[in-house]
Amino acid sequence: MDLERGQRSRAVKKQSWRSVLMLAYQSLGVVYGDLSTSPLYVYKSTFADDIEHTESNDEIYGVLSFVFWTLTLIPLLKYVFVVLRADDNGEGGTFALYSLLCRHGSFGFLPSGQLADVELSAYKKKDSTASGGGAAASIVKRLLEKHHALQLMLLILALIGTCMVIADGILTPAISVFSAVSGLELAMSKEHHKYVEVPITCLILVCLFALQHYGTHRLGFLFAPIVMLWLLCISIIGVYNIFCWNPHVYRAFSPFYMYNFLKKTQRGGWMSLGGILLCITGSEAMFADLGHFSPLSIKIAFTSVVYPSLLLAYMGQAAYLSQHHIIQTDYRIGFYVSVPERIRWPVMAIAILAAVVGSQAVITGTFSIIKQCSALGCFPRVKIVHTSSKIHGQIYIPEINWILMTLCLAVTIGFRDTKLLGNASGLAVMTVMLVTTCLMFLIIVLCWHQSIFLAACFIFFFGSIEALYFSASLIKFLEGAWFPLALCIVFMIIMYVWHYGTIKKYEFDVENKVSINWLLSLGPTLGFVRVRGIGLIHTELVSGIPAIFSHFVTNLPAFHQVVVFLCIKSVPVPYVHPQERFLVGRIGPKEYRLYRVIVRYGYQDIQKDDLEFERDLVCSIADFIRSEGSKPSGLAEETDKDDGQMTVVGTGLRIHEEKVEAEDAPGPSASREILSPVIAPKKQVRFLLPRSPKIKEEAKEELQELLEAREAGMAFILGHEYMRAKSGSSLIKRMAIDLGYEFLRRNCRGPMYAFSIPHASTLEVAMIYHV
């Protein structure tokens, strides 16, 4: 037995490592495509206008030294060893950091927060033991909780990082593919190749975006071999150039060459940093795509494959250029010059394929971060397609995909130059990295409970490097860097207006909710005839009765015997365990048959929009009824002054539906069952109850009534609220609410589950709000 147990343990361990290595292999095709194709344009962008390649080789050695230390300090030291540890339950990206800070700082941007949310297993904070960190965390936490302006600044900082990720998702495909196709310039005159490069680039980009609906899982297996081949190719070419042209090029790794470079080139050398920084484009994807893979797999792929291959590639180019100083034209200092002529065309074909893969990294990251923003109320609702039923986080967003493609084609046709595209891409990349560095300062203090001194050292060291590169990019504002800033402003306005309108709508709902005393005065019949069925009223409120219900009571002659106020909300965690998803409570006395159900989703959860959701909803109410008499241990409860107790139910029972004949009798079952009356061929509904203490007769009655209501069917009452700014409001508020928010609301998607609701079972009610 011990031998069998040991063999089983080794098999599990072996399978685990096999999974990690497989994820590392897939990450090459999804995460590292952009980073691995940077040798195509780094030297070309660096030597574009600001500096010249002279016979002393001071410039080329200085650039190689900068590239080596930048690759070592930013992707390797900052991201691999520090930032990847700051995941939010396995998720990465700007908004994952912001969500993590909101939970640890006890402040947030979601107005529907509850005490019960804190009891979620994914919400609970990981305690870190660090000397001297507790006092610093308390000080920073009090400052953030006390000053609303600081919270607003933190939200704006997160939105800026998000917008620049979107901008990078537009610029990276353009510059990667355009640079790969630019190899044609060596085979034709400069006047002619420009008329060939742009159409071919646009055709490739259209094909790339058209493939996105196949999903990350399929694309990962398709693209990973291409990146492996590309990295092997540039490594071999790099080794060949090193031994053939300059075996001593490794001496440029000395920081002295950076100092000598800046001393000789001065302002031109500083401005050329805008081209050097392109060697780390795609580093943020290591963190943004963390939810698709695992930290260990990403670290293994970078340290063992990507990092050494890139170093060999840059060293090989520098070795070749150190022995070739006569540049016939201004574009002959690019990547393809250092490729031996015999293999130049095959290498260009591989480069084009690798550039397509490189674009995939940022497109995937863009989908991921937009989903997070949408779930947390900072982006209009969009259609999210989950491309893998087995792996969480692999998604495709059709609307965003086509918007990215349109803007990507526009910027390619508009700029038509690697230098302009590089300036724009460099600014977007460095802005995202600066935002990550700033947020990491708070993560180190609030989440890891380290000292402020250590956090200050982190932000000073990495922030100084990134600020230097950022300033070199910003100085080229008129030479392409304006584009990501303009794009950031547009997306910032969209996101902030949506967030502002969402908050104002919720505040209006809270201020105008109906009093529980008014409801009790109506009596058990609520003032009208109660008919069989379940009436499902959608509301954003987590407590109280929405104003729209009073509209029903005064205008409808009859209503359902069971009324459920349904609130579907997001919580600032990536995933909510299914056993913790439903929070159920009762409104008024039992005979009223009024329930409140709050369904909680994380920002990376799959929101159910089919019949399974309806069954889970009914089961959660039945489970609440069954367990109401006794309070099992471990159930989280929340009491509201307008409602009864809210209880977390894990849908311990299941619902079974089948079509039966009238003479059929229910068969024996290991579980106890509550059946509804069966007459004629129809759908039979029954609850399969786990063995537990006896159920009270009163609860059995209520369960029986719930079954009959479920058989009769559900009716969904959806409210359409039209918001208008109050008279006397400022011009900015009127533009934000009347024009901006209303335009976005009319053109975005409704609640996820609403698309599977039969139109015959839907009642839509319109109301106008003045906020």
Automatic annotation (TrEMBL):
Cross-referenced InterPro entries: K+_transporter, K_trans_C, K_trans_N
Gene Ontology MF term list: potassium ion transmembrane transporter activity
Pfam families for the chain: K_trans, K_trans_C
Keyword Magnesium appears in the UniProt entry: no
Residue stretches spanning the membrane: 20-40, 60-81, 152-175, 221-243, 268-288, 300-323, 343-370, 391-415, 427-446, 453-475, 481-498
Membrane topology per record: Multi-pass membrane protein
Keywords carried by this UniProt record: Ion transport, Membrane, Potassium, Potassium transport, Transmembrane, Transmembrane helix, Transport
Annotated ranges, domain K+ potassium transporter integral membrane: 23-520
K+ potassium transporter C-terminal domain ranges (all copies): 533-770
Keyword Transmembrane helix: yes
GO CC, alphabetical: membrane
Domain of life the protein comes from: Eukaryota
Chief location bin: membrane
Coiled-coil regions listed in the entry: none
Subcellular location: Membrane
Family per record: Belongs to the HAK/KUP transporter (TC 2.A.72.3) family.
Biological function: Potassium transporter.
Protein name (Swiss-Prot/TrEMBL): Potassium transporter
Source organism (scientific name): Musa troglodytarum
